Amino acid sequence: VTYCNRTHKERHLRANDREFNLSFKYANNAIKTSKYNVFTFLPLNLFEQFQRLANAYFVFLLILQLIPQISSLSWFTTVVPLLLVLSITLAKDLSDDITRHKNDNHVNNRKVEVLINGELKSEKWMNVQVGDIVKLENNEFVTADLLLLSSSEPLNLIYIETAELDGLVSNRFIKYSISILYISGEVRCEPPNNRLDKFTGTLTMRGETFALDNERILLRGCTLRNTEWCFGLVVFGGPDTKLMQNSGKSVFKRTSIDHLMNVLVMFIFGFLAFMCTILSIGNAIWEYQEGNSFITFLPRADGANASLSAFLTFWSYVIILNTVVPISLYVSVEILRLGNSYFIDWDRKMYHVKSDTPAQARTTTLNEELGQIKYIFSDKTGTLTQNIMTFNRCSINGKSYGKSSKKKIDFSWNSLADSKFCFHDHKLVEAVKSGSPEVRAFFRLLALCHTVMAEEKTEGELFYQAQSPDEGALVTAARNFGFVFRSRTPETISLVEMGVPTTYELLAVLDFNNVRKRMSVIVRSPEGKLTLFCKGADTIIYERLHPSSSKLMEVTTEHLNEYAGEGLRTLALAYKDLDEDEFEKWKERHHEASTSLEDREAKLDTIYEEIEKDLLLLGASAVEDKLQDGVPQTIEQLAKADIKIWVLTGDKQETAENIGYSCNMLREEMKEIFIVAANTAEEVREELVNARKKMSPESGDEPPIEKSRLLGKKSQVVEDEKVDGEYGLVINGHSLAFALQKDMQLELLRTACMCQAVICCRVTPLQKAQVVELVKKHKKAVTLAIGDGANDVSMIKTAHIGVGISGQEGMQAVLSSDFSFAQFRYLQRLLLVHGRWSYLRMCKFLRYFFYKNFTFTFVHFWYGFFCGFSAQTVYDEWFITLYNLVYTALPVIGLSIFDQDVNDRWSFQYPQLYAPGQLNQYFSKMAFARILLHSCYSSLVLFFIPWAAMCDTVRDDGKDIADYQSFALLAQTCLLIAVSVQMGLDTYYWTAVNQFFLWGSLSVYFAVTFTMYSNGMYLIFTSSFPFIGTARNSLNQPNVWLTIFLTTILCILPVVAKRFLFIQLKPTINDKVGSNYVVTSNMMCSGRVACTRRSGYAFSHARGYGDLVTSGRFLRIPVKSRPALFPHTDTPALRLFKKSFILADFVCF
């Protein structure tokens, strides 16, 4: 694959001219996603692994061990653990890269027909070149980025599925036909880039120049559907295609525990250097004072003195105490995370049967972060709601229709009606049948002003493919009331109006975008009458109405308020009759703007504004977007867990606010809900400050900022401020744009974070990401973003955790997410169960891992004071080698994969259990300091008790037992049993696997010990196994076992005592639940109060497809109040269960 000539210059190519195109050295169509080949795998992978600090450190240790004057340990004590860690990583990377190679080969060896010298020849994808003309057939993948030339369908219509790009099904067609065999055109276009929604270029052919845009390009990653064949010109190939340009490295997310571990590892290195310095100084003093006494039988080398001995001793102890640096930590963490990810994938309670969609952990490195979420940023449509619209109400010429009656309307009079459509107001049907011109104009507008595609497989059976569910619902409503949209071409729209086939000439589509927030079409009726039909947000339409519509606007506004109280999404409809001459002049200006290569969109918006004025109001429609199942309950549970939810939506303020009430985010019993909707920066600031002062009168003008500097990075963290009561905040997109300015963003953050619920409406995708980034940057909290559409991708990637919902808006959100599932309600299980368990398990694992390693190492440290600081090891070398790899590896993995303090049912019953994760209570710098102290105490016991017990002790037969080898065996046995018992105390949930790992590891230790200390091993490997007979001569003595028992008891006694005292005197919420205490608080329920909150219709954030319609390419798209987090100890009712406190009795999976 050639990567040359990928500059910012334009691309120039000729069709069917390989010699010319090859001169530019454009990349061919082969792709390569694999990282290694046979020759580079080992060196490159090892190079990558040794870039990790821990691995490089152990290589450095190995080098030190090869120096005889320094090393007192055999080389295998470092080589065996290092090789095991490297081998596991090598095997994982090799498996991943083999899979990538297979995928690459599968794709590169696909066949496609290429036009060469006037003949179609079969070629592999990898051999296709830029400028080639390829033929695609039905259900074939698109070979490269192609310029569409022609197809088998009438009007060159083609259907494509873009699932690999955005999960949608699209349809496009082109206006002009080209003679395939003799094409000799030249294309000049933009260089390769990752903009999926934009393409700029020109095609020069037969003296004519055609403007090329994104709608004429067929991207690699699509699939041809329902089209027999099509031809295309290769513009970008292989790595230059937009799909591959978008396959760059995603933002690598690291958990807060990862960042903390990096800091701790740096501290451990410093602590290791400190211990080695202390011991080397001790060696210098000892050599100076006592060393001369040993010269007779331990002669010094020439030039050796106390200073040199201290220097060598320093490096010797770096080797001896290396276990304080956890080489196997990172591999163990990856195994733990992978195991917990499988639990999410396998959870049948997060499987959505209707859509056959399981939950999926798409990233395996963020599981424990799910147990620390403080802020959730959620989209509304399709995330909180079902994004399945039903036409419920409408206002036509000042009359409101749609109030429910018991009897459902019978649409049998309309043979083309949709049998699934339901409506209950018979007056509307009567108005249509009686020939009311306003009612018929209303439904005619709904049948004409859209970009829906109709498919009629059998006579009378229509299937609509809509860009959004809103459009589908409105067109279906028009269909049932007698105005049936049946088909369309680039120039016409065919309807059946009250049984009469009618064809309208489609002259222009003025499409929707984020600024316009409306859509219009210009059509000519069979009678020759020119009409502009427009639909959009009511505030936008009202600004463009003719003064004669003012009275109707007032009545319609009242109806809109009524619909808002019912939580419906509204849309205003208007029209305008056009003059022929005026339209022709406008059409010329429109053509100039549409063919412009610079600022095309801005020029078109200006042209649209010219004609969309003096409109006449027809009325308003209202569709219902129902909440997903379980959304209010989920938000209730998350709020009890002290998780704050912010809704970031493109909907109108009234709609978003009403949904906020429906899903229990906003509640009538809140002290106040602040509305920020100012139009200037100063007014926005004033409203934010006033809101903050109401919530916290004592808050100062300057935000309480905690400045910190971590690893060279400065950060400003805005501390939480106390608030009396619960508040809500609603801010619109216009005000949010001012609030996000640099000089005001901290004020927005302070005010919003004081509120229990925040709703940002009319926001753009960029603003969503900016809001998430603001909280992420200035709050010491973990954020989660959840959405289901392409407009949510930016915030999903920005947040610490991104969750995608596979819904009605494609798969882009899922493809960009870290976790995905089908329904919002599964979020509470993901966080309160899997997230909390993962965090608990990870913290237990780290605490125990550091404890066992520090305890192991500190015994060496104390022993240094009794061996003349000679860097002699206190343990057998084989025990040092196998301690982390065999004896303690599986038990801690079993603990960290299967342990749970309470089961999933109790996790839901007591969401307050989630709070410790938000506060980092289970593992922090302070917790690490406590581990150091605990390890220091345990090591003192593990060294001095065996030392005192062995000193001047004899066996039953009177022989001396106080030798170095017997002491080493006793010390290491005490250590292993003590840390195993400690792990047993830390285990809340015992399974057969835990039991097997724990008892199995102890059994393996004794089996290996008796084997390695046997006569046979000594005779075979004399130098490697010097502890001959030590095990059988020591472990058969009662006083040795008494010492082991006493040491173990003394090690765990402070832990048991501390836990007992804390449970009795200062119990946490976990202790209360764990000891069968039930924490309750008064629950006050209040019904919803009827109110007139305005709702509004919201378009999707994606640009509409009107230009596809007119250009010939279509797109088809198959209250309860909450208890306090920690109730005051003098107010809750405490109920003690009759059964005794045995945690394992009620903690069951």
TrEMBL record:
<keyword id="KW-0067">ATP-binding</keyword>
<dbReference type="InterPro" id="IPR023298">
    <property type="entry name" value="ATPase_P-typ_TM_dom_sf"/>
</dbReference>
<dbReference type="GO" id="GO:0005886">
    <property type="term" value="C:plasma membrane"/>
</dbReference>
<comment type="similarity">
    <text>Belongs to the cation transport ATPase (P-type) (TC 3.A.3) family. Type IV subfamily.</text>
</comment>
<dbReference type="GO" id="GO:0005524">
    <property type="term" value="F:ATP binding"/>
</dbReference>
<feature type="binding site">
    <location>
        <position position="379"/>
    </location>
    <ligand>
        <name>Mg(2+)</name>
    </ligand>
</feature>
<feature type="binding site">
    <location>
        <position position="569"/>
    </location>
    <ligand>
        <name>ATP</name>
    </ligand>
</feature>
<feature type="transmembrane region" description="Helical">
    <location>
        <begin position="878"/>
        <end position="898"/>
    </location>
</feature>
<keyword id="KW-0472">Membrane</keyword>
<dbReference type="GO" id="GO:0016887">
    <property type="term" value="F:ATP hydrolysis activity"/>
</dbReference>
<keyword id="KW-0547">Nucleotide-binding</keyword>
<keyword id="KW-1278">Translocase</keyword>
<feature type="active site" description="4-aspartylphosphate intermediate">
    <location>
        <position position="379"/>
    </location>
</feature>
<feature type="binding site">
    <location>
        <position position="381"/>
    </location>
    <ligand>
        <name>Mg(2+)</name>
    </ligand>
</feature>
<feature type="binding site">
    <location>
        <position position="791"/>
    </location>
    <ligand>
        <name>ATP</name>
    </ligand>
</feature>
<feature type="transmembrane region" description="Helical">
    <location>
        <begin position="50"/>
        <end position="67"/>
    </location>
</feature>
<feature type="domain" description="P-type ATPase N-terminal">
    <location>
        <begin position="14"/>
        <end position="79"/>
    </location>
</feature>
<dbReference type="InterPro" id="IPR044492">
    <property type="entry name" value="P_typ_ATPase_HD_dom"/>
</dbReference>
<keyword id="KW-1133">Transmembrane helix</keyword>
<dbReference type="InterPro" id="IPR023299">
    <property type="entry name" value="ATPase_P-typ_cyto_dom_N"/>
</dbReference>
<dbReference type="GO" id="GO:0140326">
    <property type="term" value="F:ATPase-coupled intramembrane lipid transporter activity"/>
</dbReference>
<feature type="binding site">
    <location>
        <position position="512"/>
    </location>
    <ligand>
        <name>ATP</name>
    </ligand>
</feature>
<dbReference type="InterPro" id="IPR008250">
    <property type="entry name" value="ATPase_P-typ_transduc_dom_A_sf"/>
</dbReference>
<keyword id="KW-0812">Transmembrane</keyword>
<dbReference type="InterPro" id="IPR001757">
    <property type="entry name" value="P_typ_ATPase"/>
</dbReference>
<feature type="binding site">
    <location>
        <position position="535"/>
    </location>
    <ligand>
        <name>ATP</name>
    </ligand>
</feature>
<feature type="transmembrane region" description="Helical">
    <location>
        <begin position="845"/>
        <end position="866"/>
    </location>
</feature>
<feature type="binding site">
    <location>
        <position position="788"/>
    </location>
    <ligand>
        <name>Mg(2+)</name>
    </ligand>
</feature>
<feature type="transmembrane region" description="Helical">
    <location>
        <begin position="931"/>
        <end position="949"/>
    </location>
</feature>
<dbReference type="InterPro" id="IPR023214">
    <property type="entry name" value="HAD_sf"/>
</dbReference>
<feature type="binding site">
    <location>
        <position position="651"/>
    </location>
    <ligand>
        <name>ATP</name>
    </ligand>
</feature>
<feature type="binding site">
    <location>
        <position position="768"/>
    </location>
    <ligand>
        <name>ATP</name>
    </ligand>
</feature>
<dbReference type="GO" id="GO:0007030">
    <property type="term" value="P:Golgi organization"/>
</dbReference>
<protein>
    <recommendedName>
        <fullName>Phospholipid-transporting ATPase</fullName>
        <ecNumber>7.6.2.1</ecNumber>
    </recommendedName>
</protein>
<keyword id="KW-0479">Metal-binding</keyword>
<feature type="transmembrane region" description="Helical">
    <location>
        <begin position="969"/>
        <end position="989"/>
    </location>
</feature>
<dbReference type="GO" id="GO:0005802">
    <property type="term" value="C:trans-Golgi network"/>
</dbReference>
<feature type="binding site">
    <location>
        <position position="650"/>
    </location>
    <ligand>
        <name>ATP</name>
    </ligand>
</feature>
<feature type="transmembrane region" description="Helical">
    <location>
        <begin position="263"/>
        <end position="286"/>
    </location>
</feature>
<dbReference type="InterPro" id="IPR006539">
    <property type="entry name" value="P-type_ATPase_IV"/>
</dbReference>
<feature type="binding site">
    <location>
        <position position="792"/>
    </location>
    <ligand>
        <name>ATP</name>
    </ligand>
</feature>
<feature type="binding site">
    <location>
        <position position="649"/>
    </location>
    <ligand>
        <name>ATP</name>
    </ligand>
</feature>
